[in-house]
Write a structure and sequence with these properties.
elongated, single chain, four-stranded antiparallel β-sheet, alpha+beta, 4 strands
């Protein structure tokens, strides 16, 4: 079962990485539009020194992945490492094989940003990220919990975009980068979150506390533990309830299976979620 899950993850990572590579190499980089984050740094270094984008992305991510392993544990970092390596390799392969479109900058921004968001979303739906800014944002959020991960990522992207504008010596580059990032975020919202919908995960297991601790650490979502009674045998048990975004369900599965392969899990739709960590 684990091998089957790994193969599914790897296949999605490859498909997501291909889409992401097309976005960066076909639409964004040729038109001097920085996609933000680590990839934005890599494209500007490619412009300055002709360094391979994928290799630079991987080199920058290595210390971040090590730091993430030390802070978040191997569960989260393992998938992120696989996804990062896949994306980096595909970026360098694509740099040789893919065409470069020098087109209208608005079209390049919208199509590049949208494809970038789709590629990242596919990877995130399998409980992973593409590393880089995601890890930095999570680390800063753990130190300064009052600053959301989204705001931290936005700030880092803004710094990268401004840096790229200086490198390209083109102020318009920063404006088109904003268009690309907005397009990417909208596609990610659509694919990952829908219309503010989420999932409610119910878990019944004998390893309740271990699973709760793991969800709090790895998924960073609140958990409710309730006393329940089985209708057949009348046994008293503990049930975990956790409300998450669609892309976080896989991470909850991993937390449960880490301690109890035979746990009883029910996933229900949440039409709309209001409150801390979700819609205000």
């Amino acid at each position: 079962m684990k091998l089957k899950t790994f193969c599914k993850d790897l296949l999605v990572f490859i498909v997501g990485g291909i889409i992401y590579s097309v976005a960066v190499l076909v639409f964004l980089a040729p038109n001097e539009i920085a996609p933000g984050g680590v990839t934005g740094i890599a494209t500007t270094l490619n412009f300055l020194f002709s360094l391979p984008i994928g290799i630079v992305v991987l080199i920058i991510n290595i210390p971040l992945l090590i730091l993430g392993f030390l802070k978040f544990g191997k569960g989260f970092i393992f998938k992120t490492t696989i996804a990062t390596v896949c994306t980096s390799l595909l970026l360098d392969i694509g740099e040789v094989l893919l065409p470069k479109f020098h087109i209208d900058l608005i079209l390049a921004s919208v199509f590049g940003g949208s494809l970038m968001g789709l590629g990242i979303s596919l990877i995130m739906l399998r409980g992973s990220t593409t590393g880089g800014v995601d890890i930095i944002a999570k680390l800063i959020n753990r130190r300064f919990a009052h600053i959301s991960v989204g705001k931290i990522m936005l700030l880092i992207d803004a710094v990268v975009v401004i840096f790229a504008a200086f490198v390209y010596k083109n102020a318009q580059s920063a404006l088109y980068s904003v268009v690309a990032l907005y397009s990417s975020s909208r596609i990610m919202d659509l694919v990952l979150y829908g219309s503010d919908k989420g999932k409610i995960v119910y878990v019944i297991s004998d390893k309740t506390q271990d699973i709760v601790d793991d969800i709090l650490l790895q998924v960073n979502r609140g958990v409710t533990v309730m006393d329940v009674v089985g209708g057949y045998k009348g046994e008293k048990r503990k049930m975990i309830m956790c409300t998450v975004r669609r892309n976080e369900v896989s991470a909850v599965y991993n937390s449960v299976r880490r301690y109890d392969e035979g746990a009883f899990i029910v996933v229900a739709e949440a039409g709309e979620i209001l409150g801390e960590g979700f819609k205000k």
